[in-house]
Specification:
The complex is a heterodimer of chains A (343) and B (169). By secondary structure, chain A is of the alpha+beta class. Chain A has 13 helices and ten strands. The two termini of chain A are 23 Å apart. With 169 residues, chain B is mostly helical. In chain B, 50% of the residues lie in helices and 6% in strands. Chain B has a two-stranded antiparallel sheet with strand order 1-2. The chains are: A alpha+beta (343), B mainly alpha (169).
């Protein structure tokens, strides 16, 4: 079983608050402590990683894209999971994002701090340890709200305790096509683990991509959360492998046809819509796992965020209309597929 | 506009007073109402016993004044409605509600990683008290001790790490 074919990325997030400062939803902006808090966060982040700081208004102006591209930069950060959609609604929010985009520290989202580390593949522990370095320093420099027994205090009581969420993004085409996923969603919900679309609560699964994360884990230790998630991810990987074999046994030629058509579309299309890309790339990835296509799956995983709607415009440095985006996407995908061929 | 009384929080409404009107925040508004209630009841003190006055005051407060967190102005009704606390102090001020939510969410006491920084004046956890959950923190301490050439300290930390890893297996 190749877990790395199925698990696209791993993410750890900590929710933290400080004492003597209203939680973000009650902030007025004139609290003297607010600036002091923001300066400390900025200094700690600067000492721990090479990153850029953006306030929500910076993100909304979209100065890095071009004039008039309001919200483009903000939406690009959201579609790349570097900030949450709710940060965009925060009056005094912002984020410090590392240059390699593996770490982001959001401030004044639902809690004063939302620290997160995203790594490629199945590397929950590594993400946890990397984030811990920043978290320990933030604890040293800030008066973090904590109560014995309750753990870290958060605006919403469901995050009490470790204030930690572990999530992995998984590629589960066979379980989805077999229809087994609905049963598994119910089963894992009873164990406080959710399976949902890649953009979190309420979002659809695009290209068979699912986000698996721990839900209310009040009282759980960090080790318990990570161990639980690891065992569920391994179980899902095993079930996905079984489902892939079952699908291949049942309708080999139809599946091969679909995979090759998808590859052909991506390789030759001159105009490629976002949904069309997502579904076809999913079949190409499935083809790689069956050994039908000799392509580098990691390169494919890196290609996906590059052709997301807002990212295309931001990288191009100008506002692209939907048709221009589809043309640009087709061009990038063609050259990427040629470049990631394994000889 | 800032509250004309505390000059700290945002004003949320205008209150008519004997001297005119004032823009007040939610916290100062509640205090003002409390003061008015006390004034009204003080007028009755010549005619009734202290016990009667005290009961009347309690009843008035229960009817008219909702408790708000003195640090952030969060009220109990808003907490119930939003399912969000207003600040860390709310967890003490609305401790009954916090306990209720905690029980609803499983009521399991948090025994995870202990930072030991929540009160910087208290001594931190000793090496002997550290558990498997503290291993990443211990690894960091070990690196720092080695970088600072504190060999005895590094040796003690290393021994504790080995012991905990042994226990975990």
């Amino acid at each position: 079983m190749n877990i790395q074919d199925i698990v696209v990325s791993s993410r750890i997030r900590f929710a933290r608050n400080v004492n003597n400062l209203p939680f973000p939803h009650l902030l007025n902006g004139d609290e003297g402590k607010l600036q002091e808090f923001l300066n400390t966060v900025q200094n700690v982040c600067a000492s721990k990683f090479d990153g850029d700081i953006y306030t929500v208004s910076d993100m909304k102006i979209g100065g890095e894209v071009c004039e008039g591209a309001d919200d483009y930069f903000l939406n690009m950060l959201i579609e790349n999971h570097l900030i949450s959609p709710s940060l965009g609604r925060s009056k005094f929010g912002g984020a410090v994002i590392s240059k390699d985009r593996s770490i982001s520290v959001m401030f004044n989202e639902e809690d004063h701090l939302r620290e997160q580390c995203i790594l490629d593949g199945f590397r929950l522990r590594e993400a946890y340890e990397r984030l811990l370095e920043i978290d320990v320093t933030l604890h040293e420099k800030l008066d973090i709200a904590y109560r014995k027994g309750l753990g870290h205090l958060t605006a919403c009581p469901t995050n009490l305790g470790a204030g930690m969420r572990a999530s992995v993004m998984m590629f589960l085409p066979a379980l989805d096509l077999c229809g087994d996923l609905r049963r598994l969603i119910k089963k894992f919900a009873s164990e406080d683990v959710t399976i949902r679309g890649v953009y979190g609560e309420g979002s659809e699964a695009t290209g068979f991509m699912y986000q698996i994360s721990n839900q209310a884990a009040v009282g759980w230790s960090e080790e318990q959360i990570i161990s639980k998630m690891e065992s569920i991810v391994k179980e899902l990987c095993m079930l996905e492998e079984q489902a892939r074999r079952a699908i291949l046994d049942r309708k080999k030629i139809d599946l091969e046809d679909q995979i090759m058509r998808a590859y052909g579309t991506l390789l030759f299309a001159r105009v490629l819509g976002s949904d069309e890309f997502m579904i076809n790339i999913a079949y190409v990835k499935l083809g790689i796992s069956y050994g039908l296509l000799k392509l580098d799956v990691r390169a494919i995983n890196k290609l996906i965020p590059k052709v997301l709607p807002y990212t295309l415009s931001v990288n191009k440095g100008k506002i692209l209309n939907p048709h221009e985006r589809d043309v640009e996407r087709a061009k990038i995908v063609r050259s990427a597929l040629i470049a990631c061929k394994i000889q | 506009m800032l509250c004309e009384l505390c000059k700290m929080r945002q004003a949320e409404g205008i209150v008519k007073t004997d001297e005119g009107s004032a823009n007040l925040c939610a916290v100062c508004f509640q205090r003002y109402r409390m003061l008015k209630a006390t004034e009204e009841i003080e007028g009755l003190m010549d005619f009734f016993s202290m016990h009667d006055v005290s009961n009347a005051l309690s009843a008035y407060v229960m009817r008219n004044v909702e408790a708000v967190c003195p640090a952030c102005g969060m009220s109990l009704s808003r907490l119930k409605n939003d399912f969000k606390f207003g600040c860390s102090n709310c967890y003490d001020f609305f401790s009954e509600k916090a306990k209720e939510y905690f029980e609803e969410l499983g009521g399991q006491e948090y025994k995870g990683r202990y930072f030991g920084y929540e009160n910087k004046n208290k001594p931190r956890k000793t090496l002997a008290d550290m558990t498997v959950d503290d291993l990443p923190f211990l690894m960091k301490m070990l690196k720092e001790a080695k970088d600072n050439q504190e060999l005895a300290k590094a040796d003690a930390i290393n021994r504790r790490i080995k012991q905990l890893k042994g226990d975990a297996q």
